[in-house]
From TrEMBL:
Residues 274-328 form a coiled coil. The lineage of its organism: Bacteria, Pseudomonadati, Pseudomonadota, Gammaproteobacteria, Alteromonadales. It comes from the Bacteria. The chain crosses the membrane at residues 25-48. The keyword Coiled coil applies. It comes from Pseudoalteromonas neustonica. Keywords: Coiled coil, Membrane, Transmembrane, Transmembrane helix. This is Band 7 domain-containing protein.
Length: 449
């Protein structure tokens, strides 16, 4: 039964060839072979160039090297080609999933204070194109690179990676780890890009030691030695540099930066301690500020209470002063009123006393008059004198009345203006003569007494 199964495929094959025809099978096979040969020949004659690459083509017949810059198809003519990226990037961040021309691990570095670590960063380089040969016939540009390195992988490992590593380490040696984690990563990245582009600085170390401890031996230092880096300068003040190794090949630096540094474990422990100390210090400072603010608040509240108490005291004092002034004014007014009342009373009393004195004097005069009247009533002479005086007064009044009276009508004949009548004048003369006679008699009586 097995022999029957083995015979069946062979029979089928024979039947297929017999049906299709041996000649046709050979014809189809020949066509496929010719197409494969044509495709192979075409790939050796015409090829394709990518937009981000430059190709160095070596002729299969003459061996001459040419640089192909244009993207798209080109005539290969059975020659050999080597591809170079126009911009080569080297990624040393340690990220294996990154996209770059070369991915390498972190670059080990050592700071000025001998602390070690690993640098993370990226550097990008632009390769030159087709540069004409020099006067001596020496190749330049990409042809020189291809002549010395032969491939992009060799160029990266033997030149670009070496230049990146040397400049990263040279930049790290210019600062201490404390300067770096205190904010010096930007300066480190700037130094790296500067030295990679223009050449590594020529530097010298300056070692300064601390003061010696007098209690210890002279060869023991009480403080750690301090090392600083000084960049040497020429007579014009320009920084001295080593020749850049990339400049000889016309390679330019597009970008170079150090992203971060992975410190060794003891530095991380120191950083954690410093972070904790900084946090404690910040907390203490915050508590101090809070206490100071609270103290200021208490002082302000105390001053406010004192000011309020002082204001109340001033208010009470002013009120007391006002009350005292009011009482004083009232007392003055009352005193003035009492003085006025007393003065009025004194005046009234003086008037009363005056009236009383006058009354007393009047009483005395009256009494004296009465006494005199009593005495005179008994004295005939006094009675005669009084009678005589009364008669004199009567007669005087009578003659005065007669002198002023008109006894007869006053008729004036032939008298000029301004002249008096003769009758009136005559009567006045008689009255005056009677009065003079009476006066002389009275004077005579006084003298006889």
């Amino acid at each position: 039964m097995d022999s029957q199964q083995a015979v069946t495929p062979q029979g089928n094959k024979s039947s297929f060839i017999s049906r299709f025809g041996r000649r046709n099978v050979i014809l189809v096979s020949a066509i496929f072979i010719v197409l494969a040969v044509i495709a192979t020949l075409m790939s050796q004659v015409i090829s394709w160039n990518e937009a981000d690459e430059r190709l160095v083509h070596q002729s299969a017949f003459t061996g001459n090297l040419t640089v192909i810059d244009q993207a798209g198809p080109y005539l290969k003519a059975f020659g050999s080609t080597s591809a170079y990226k126009k911009v080569i990037s080297i990624n040393f961040t340690g990220d294996s999933s990154a996209t770059a021309s070369a991915i390498v691990p972190l670059i080990p570095i050592r700071f000025l204070d001998t602390t070690t670590g690993g640098a993370r960063g990226v550097s990008r380089f632009r390769l030159p194109g087709n540069v004409p040969a020099g006067e001596s016939g020496s190749l330049r540009g990409l042809l020189k690179i291809h002549e010395e390195f032969g491939s992009q992988e060799t160029l990266i490992s033997n030149l670009l990676m070496r230049a990146t590593t040397e400049n990263v380490k040279a930049s790290a040696r210019m600062m201490s780890v404390e300067q770096h984690y205190s904010g010096g990563n930007g300066q480190l990245s700037q130094d790296f890009a500067d030295q990679l582009t223009n050449g590594i600085f020529v530097t010298e170390q300056i070692i300064s030691s601390g003061e010696r401890d007098k209690t210890d031996e002279l060869n023991n230092l009480s403080k750690q030695q301090r090392v600083t880096i000084n960049i040497k300068k020429d007579s014009e003040g320009n920084a001295l540099r080593n020749a850049p190794i990339l400049g000889a090949y016309g390679i330019t630096v597009v970008d170079a930066s150090i992203i971060d540094i992975d410190y060794e474990s003891k530095v991380n422990a120191r950083l954690e301690a410093q972070k904790q100390a900084a946090a404690d210090e910040a907390l203490a400072r915050q508590n101090l500020k809070k206490a100071e603010q609270q103290a200021r608040t208490e002082v302000a509240l105390g001053e406010q209470a004192i000011a309020k108490q002082r204001a109340e005291s001033e208010k009470l004092k002013i009120k007391e002063q006002i009350d005292a002034e009011r009482v004083k004014a009232n007392a003055i007014i009352s005193a003035q009123q009492r003085v006025a009342v007393k003065a009025e009373l004194a005046k009234e009393q003086a008037e009363i006393l005056k009236q009383q004195r006058l009354e007393a004097m009047g009483m005395d005069v009256l009494a004296e008059a009465r006494q005199r009247a009593k005495s005179a009533a008994l004295d005939p002479k006094y009675v005669f004198d009084e009678t005589l005086k009364a008669e004199v007064k009567i007669q005087t009044a009578l003659f005065t009345s007669l002198g002023n009276s008109r006894l007869v009508p006053e008729i004036v004949i032939g008298v000029g203006q301004g002249e008096q009548s003769n009758g009136s004048e005559f009567m006045r003369i008689l009255a005056a003569d009677a009065a003079l006679s009476l006066q002389k008699r009275l004077d005579k009586d006084k003298k006889t007494k």
